[in-house]
Structures are given as C-alpha cells and as structure tokens.
Amino acid sequence: MINTGKKTRFLLVGVPKSRLSKEQIIKDLQELWSLVMTLGNAEIVDALVQRADRPDNATFIGRGKVDELYEKVKNEQIDVVVINSIVKAQQLHNVKMKLFSANEKIEVWDRVDLILFIFSLHAHTAEAKLQIDLAKMHHMGPRIYGMGKVLSNQAAGIGAVGIGETNTELMKRHWRSAINKVQEQLDKLSAEKEQQLERRKRLGLETVSIIGYTNAGKTALFNRLTGKKNLTENVLFATLDSAVGKLYLPTAKKEIFITDTIGFIKNLPPTLIKAFTSTLMESIHADIVLHVIDASDEDMKYKISVVEKILHDLKIQNKHKIYIFNKMDKAIYPKNELSAEYDIYTPIFISASKNEGVEEVKNCIDSLSLSAKA
Questions:
Q1: How far is C-alpha 316 from the geometric centre of its chain's CA atoms?
Q2: pLDDT tens digits for 263-281?
C-alpha cells in the first residue's frame, strides 16, 4: 500500500454523532490525523465529515457522502480512505466497490484497520507480531483470506466480489484454524510470562508498571528511571512491545522491575485489548502503577478517563496508582489545582525530557516499597 517512491495520499472521513460539538469533531479528526501521520510516508489531502446518529446499512456513511468521496478520489488521486469509526466488513467492501472505477487500487479502511497497520510497523518481537495477527484475524474475519488482496504484515486489504458459497466456507474454516494456531502460540507465551511473574513474586521482587495515553511520555520516564535508552518519539504508539528495566531503591535496599508497555487510546476496540493481554500482563500483575499524563494536553482530563476505563476493563483499577503529570513546563492547569483534584492518587509533577521531578518519583516508589516491606 505505501510506496517508497511517493507519499500515500489519504482522505479522512469523520462520522460523528449529531450531538457532538464542532470543537469535539475537530479534535477527533486531529487524533485521526495524528494516527495517519504516524505512518511516516503519508500525505493527508482532505477530511470530510458526515454527521450520523445511525450508520447507513449499506455503506455506513450514506450514498451522498460516497458520491462525494468518489469525486475526491478521482480528482485528488486518493490512495486510501479512512473512516474514523469501527465499520463492518461488508460496508467497507461496498464503499470500495463504489470507488473502484475512480481508482482501481483504492483502499478503504476503518479506524481499526489503521491502528493495526500502525501496530504492524512498530512490532519487533515475535509476541507482538502474533498479537497483531490475532487482532487482524478477529477484526477482518474470513475476508482476510482469498477475497482480493490478502492482508500483508503491513497493510489491511479489503475484499473483492465473486466468491462462491463453497469457497466462503473454506475461507471460514481456514480463518478459524489460523486463529486457533496463533492463539495457541500466544497462550504458550502467556503461560511462560505468567510463570516468570509468579517466580518474581516468590522471590519478593516488586514490579512497577508505567501506563498512560499514547504519547504522554511513558518511555521517557521509563528511560529516566532505569537508565535505558529506549526509543522516544513524538508519535502515537512509539512503544508497542513491553520493555522491562530495573531500579535500585536505596531506602528499601532492594531492586525492583520497571515495565513500559503499549500506550492507550480512546475507542480502542475490545479485540485489540484482548489480543494484547499477554503484553499487558506486566501491568495486570504490577504492585504499583504509574499513570503518566500529558499535562500540556488540553484534553488531559478526558484522556485520564479513557485510560481509567481501560484499566477498569483489564481489572487493574484497584492497584496502588500514582498519577505522574508529565510535561509540566508546558502545563495547561496549575499544579495546585491538579494536586487538589487528584490528591487521592499522590500526584507528582515532572518533565521527563528535562529530568525534572524524576527523583521525587523514585523516592515515592522507594517509600511505598519500604512500607509494603514493613
């Protein structure tokens, strides 16, 4: 899909509810914009909006908007249309077929296809690649096999027409068989990881997990705490595979594990969370959770609620949590206001990029670890 010779031209489509304000619609499209730009070789040509409280059964976005897309695809040489929602396979296929005569190579993705594409670019371990494969299979269903372009490791192709009933059943069996094989491999890796975590517990080794909305500065803090130099980029999902480092606590007189893992994002489909359970296991079993928050983000409070909902879904909301407000040099809210509002989570204010406040984070972990020991 993405050519090295030229940039891939994207057209974005927002389908907000009628009750959403103009400002919220713009923010949603800005996040979609950021996701697309994470691909690195993308050019966003335009963004369209179709307000709809109930999706169109055939095309999700409606005949009129599809006609508008057709003209855009034809006149602007669009390569990929991305609909900022979770869309049924048949609806995506119908839109693609209507755009086919404008561009025979057109791709039509929904939000999940885009995130899976980004994930595939950032996956480096066998475990992460398996998790992405599983998520792709669940999301795409049997269309992943035999229906037009097969989804590669870095793209999500949409199906074609003309598949007979017998072939459809064969594809379904192939799909179910492939899911079982990948799930078995992931279950084996998960069992091995669970054994490692249980071994740590028996040895009295504590774990601190760093979580947060994507691009909040989790990896920058991880590097400061552990002395590692993992990649930090101003892009969404820069961290996909879980990373583990160590931190020595001088007061508690012991070494603990620090883990950094995938960043969260709103409207993260349940299939993706389920597929990445193995990676998120470090957070599920952690003794202390550091929730890193971008204090410079005007949507900070909303993103806190997004992360907390995912933690609730993962059943780790009752862990000992510390709120780490990062990027305080550019903070939207004053420190005293944040302290009062989030006092229950022992808020700490830092700038990981400038190494400001990191010692306070270490001291807080040290004191909590020491009290647990006592």
A1: 18
A2: 787 767 666 776 666 667 7
* SS3 of residue 263 by DSSP: coil
The CA angle 314-315-317, to the nearest 5 degrees, is 105
- Reduced to 3 states (helix: H, G, I; strand: E, B; else coil), residue 138 is helix
Q: Order across the sheet with 243-249: list the strands.
A: 243-249, 254-260, 207-212, 288-294, 320-326, 348-349
Other CB atoms within 10 Å distance of the CB of residue 326: 27
146 confidence band (pLDDT: 50, 70, 90): very low
Mind listing the domains of the chain with CATH numbers? 8-122 (3.40.50.11060), 123-188 (no CATH), 204-373 (3.40.50.300)
Which of helix, strand or coil describes residue 43?
A: strand
User: Over the stretch 353-374, which tens digit does the pLDDT of each residue have?
Assistant: 999 999 999 999 999 876 655 5
Helices (H), the chain: 22-37, 63-76, 89-99, 111-122, 126-140, 165-202, 218-226, 270-275, 277-284, 300-313, 335-341, 358-373
Cβ atoms within 10 A of the Cβ of 161, count? 9
Please tell me the pTM assigned to this model.
Answer: 0.76
